[in-house]
Structure formats: C-alpha cells, structure tokens
Amino acid sequence: MPIVSLYAALLALLFVALSVRTLRMRRRLRIAIGDAGNEAMLRAMRAHSNFAEYVPISLILMALVAQAGASPLFLHGLGICMLAGRVSHALGVSRLKEKYAFRVIGMTLTLGPLIVCSIRLVSFYLRS
Prior knowledge:
By secondary structure, the protein is mainly alpha-helical. It has helices at 2-29, 39-67, 72-94, 100-127.
C-alpha cells in the first residue's frame, strides 16, 4: 500500500495548506467562529470542509482497492485524479469571482475515483 500512502501524504499536505489559509484569514478578518457574513471567509471554509468531506472516504476506498490487488498504474491514476480534483476544486471555490469550471473539473476528478473504486470493489466481491 505504499502508493496509497503517497497520495494520503500529498493530500494531507494540501489539507494542511487549506487549514493554514483558513486560519490566517480568520486572524486577518478577526472572525473566531463561522463566516460572519464574509463571503471570502465562507469560501475558504467551504474549500477546507469540502476537502475534509471527500478525501477520507476516497483514501479508504483506494486502500481497499489496493488490498484487493489493483495494479500500481491503476492506483496512481486514482491518486492523481483525486489530488488534481481537490486542487482544482479548492481553486474554484476559493475565488470571490469564481471560475466555475475549476469546481466542475474538481468534482468530476473527485467523484470519478469514488465511483470507479466502488464499482471495482463490488466487482471483486461478486467474483469471490
């Protein structure tokens, strides 16, 4: 499972970056809790929380697919999609003048691996 560990580490670093960005914005805007009606704060929070909502289940599914014997190339494909998707989504959501294409690409590259892993795991189950 070293491949999944690589993407878990890279995604964790991205999560830290989103966390630090949100914390700095809170300090700069003096907002301790919530968004205080500030759209930039809300967008930073949503980029951070959306990441936290999707990445754990994605990594769990990737680990299960790896354990079931998926090829290294397949796992790298999943990991690259997930990483690129989370970067793209964060860029899209974070901007006040949002470029919606970043969000669409980001969610496509995030949901794709979730769906592919799920189908692969169901397939493994049905064959066993």
